[in-house]
Amino acid sequence: MNNLPLVKALPVITSSLLICGTILLSACAGNNIVNLESSVEQLNDLNDHDRDGVIQAREKCADTVLGATIDNVGCGTQTTYVEPLKVDIKFTNNSYSIPPSAISEINALARFLEQRPELVVLIEGHTSKVGAEEFNQTLSVNRAKSVVSVLVNDFNIATERVSSIGYGFDRLADFADNEAAHATNRRILVELNETVIVDDMKWTIYTVDQVQ
After folding, report:
1. Kind and range of the H or E element at 197?
2. pTM of the model
3. Contact, 83 vs 194, CB < 8 A?
4. In a domain, 128, yes or no
5. Does 102 map to a domain?
6. CATH code, 125
């Protein structure tokens, strides 16, 4: 007897559910169908061909050295310096005569200059710190000039490619006051007027080991 009202209510509930379902389906059917846009054409090249971290669309320096420090347009930074050339010419005390042992050194320098006609060199004369300053200054100038003379007269190097300067004992290689140091300081140095360009590299965990 107590379940009679529930049985009578079931048809009403069923009808209500059917009506709500119909309304919901009608609402969904009325929505517009969303169409996906066509793919966008890629106007710029976003590849990084030289692997420097800069996309091709912004790249202004192609083929950057891998691992070099670069700017926002892919150009590496560089350091310039004058390349030194060591020529081992030693003089006896108070002398600017070219010793026979130095001819092979001068010959090697002359051959190098013949292979690199765009280069010019500066011959530096140096002395030990023994004797008067003025005397040693003149001696260093004569030592440098004697090397220039051999290059020009014996090896036919053009005079405009070779210059000389004397430093006396202003630029000692060894500051000790003994015969070994004095012998080391009585020398010739050759400076090439060649600018060498080196790429600055990024720091890595191995950088310290490379410097050492």
Report:
1. strand 187-199
2. 0.56
3. yes
4. yes
5. yes
6. 3.30.1330.60
